[in-house]
Amino acid sequence: MDDTEKNSLWRVFAERNDLSSKQLEQFQLYAGMLREKNRDFNLTALTDLAAIIAYHFQDSLEIGRFIDIASYKLIADIGTGAGFPAIPLMILYPETSFVLIEVNQKKVGFLQEVVKVLKLTEPLYITEDWRTFLRHTALPIDLFLARASLQPEELLRIFKKQSPYRGAHLVYWASQHWQPKEEEKNYIAATDAYTVGNKNRRYIIFKQSGKESS
Question: Long-range CB contacts (< 8 A, 24+ apart) of 14-21?
Fold first, then answer.
């Protein structure tokens, strides 16, 4: 890919998301770090710039077209890995606070380096597994994000009676073919379809149902 093609990709991405010059530079630095550090940290199977922009960056940001990200006080990214969707959202919404949940220490190290290089607001890093996190924390998180991490039946533990996060919302990134199980249907508040690259996908928004879960 020559420079003209790269510049075109970045221009389209910046216009679609109304990025400032600073935000565009942050995304460009982030893409460079992903490609440079991938061999050491096993961050992503996608190393082509066009794929990174479409299937990591844009796929992370599309949620902002369906819900008001800036209205949430504290957002947690479950199993954030290389930082998706949290880091793109942190770039686009610099005033919003984030919690990054990731058990892989090497990936946490990468995330810390990204935050430093991009000069982002420091998030809270949680290295506990999901069930331990639910048992041992009580943070004021009002939105959870889950993209390519756990399955809904595991994620929905946040709505159990003893969970401190029962009042939060949960967004799950799903394929267009995903079908909820019967119990999962009780918690679906909304679904939104979107297209990224050549893939049709859906956001599934869960919240506490009227029926308490034990």
Answer: 16/58, 17/58, 17/61, 17/92, 19/92
